[in-house]
Every structure is written in structure tokens, then in C-alpha cells.
Design brief:
199 residues; alpha+beta; 24% strand; elongated
């Protein structure tokens, strides 16, 4: 019988350096890093943080450009309820929620899976929600040159819920629009589409 063996693919040198830093933090908090429960925690946290910030290694623009197709479609394309997980750069605590993205093609469409992929690429970095919203919009605008782009993100921030003001039910919504979505009618159509619950 072959025993289970976990294979991790992380930068060894970086993992050692980050783990040492977290070991110092844990010890400065008053804990004993030699006890059983914490013995491997610095290494685990080092690997976790590398995963949570792996977006730095991704090029969102190239992700979009890898799946562009010529298509004469001029109606709104909406991808909604895309899960978002990111790390607030102010306190390095998570924020999470959903993103809703729309664009109106101008001769080019993109493979639908690429939109969640670029959200992931930008979100898996130290972020603020406002910048994340703009980065997604700007990337789609640059890659597709569409008639307009709309991005709305709704998130809960652990820096507000676990610490500070401690308001557990608070939610932050950010939006960013270009082109046709700057017109009231088009923007209202988009908001209506992402608000409706289809059975």
C-alpha cells in the first residue's frame, strides 16, 4: 500500500524567509512556537500567504488576450456573482464577496472563463476594493476595446468585522464604468440584470 505524500510547489527560499518572519511575529505575540500546535505554523502560514498573493505572478491582460474572438455581437454581456477573495493591504485581513462584470462588444468577445480568471489575478494581491474594481474595468477596456465596461463589487471586510468598528453585517459596494455604461439607461439595465434572481 502506497502511503499518502503531499507535494507542495512553493519557492523554498521564499518560504523559509517568510516563515522566519511569522515565527518572530508569533513569538512577539507571546506564544511558544515550539509547542506541538504551533511548531509548523510559520511554514504553513508562509505557504498560505504565497497562495493568497499569487496574483503578482499573473498577467491579467495576457489572460484576456489569450481568448479573444471576432464576433459581431453588440448587446450587453454580463457575468455576475463571481466569487472574490482578497487581502486588505491596510491590515492584511481578508475581504470577500462577489463581482459583477459586463461589457458591450465592439467586434471582439472574450472566453467567459477569462473574466473570473482576471478577477482572481487582481484579487490575489494585497488590495483595496476600490483599486480592484478599477483594475478589472481597465484591463477589460484595454484588451477588448469594447463600447463600454461595467464592474460592481460587493464585499465584506474582516478589518471592519473582526476589529475596529466590529460591524458584522456591513458590506461595501464599489463600481466603475466606461463608455456606454456612463449613460444612465445602459447603467440601469446592467444594475437591473445583476439584481434580478432568475429561476
Amino acid at each position: 500500500m502506497i502511503s499518502y505524500k503531499k507535494i507542495d510547489q512553493y519557492n523554498t527560499e521564499k518560504t523559509i524567509e517568510i516563515a522566519e518572519s511569522f515565527k518572530n511575529i508569533i513569538e512577539n505575540l507571546g506564544e511558544d512556537t515550539n509547542r506541538e500546535g504551533l511548531e509548523k505554523t510559520p511554514e504553513r502560514v508562509a505557504k498560505a500567504f504565497q497562495f493568497l498573493t499569487h496574483g503578482y505572478e499573473l498577467d491579467p491582460l495576457e489572460i484576456l488576450k489569450s481568448a479573444l474572438f471576432t464576433e459581431d455581437h453588440k448587446q450587453m454581456i454580463v457575468v455576475k456573482n463571481i466569487e472574490v477573495y482578497s487581502m486588505c493591504e491596510h491590515h492584511m485581513l481578508p475581504f470577500f464577496g462577489k463581482a459583477h462584470v459586463a461589457y458591450i462588444p465592439n467586434g471582439k468577445i472574450v472566453g467567459l472563463s477569462k473574466i473570473p480568471r482576471i478577477i482572481e489575478a487582481f484579487a490575489r494581491r494585497l488590495q483595496v476594493q476600490e483599486r480592484l474594481t478599477d483594475q478589472i474595468k481597465d484591463c477589460i477596456q484595454e484588451a477588448l476595446k469594447p463600447l463600454g465596461v461595467a464592474v460592481v463589487i460587493e464585499c465584506q471586510h474582516m478589518c471592519m468585522q473582526m476589529r475596529g468598528i466590529q460591524k458584522q453585517n456591513s458590506e461595501t459596494t464599489t463600481s466603475s464604468f466606461t463608455g456606454a455604461f456612463e449613460k444612465d439607461k445602459t447603467r440601469k439595465e446592467f444594475i437591473s440584470l445583476i439584481s434580478n434572481k432568475f429561476s
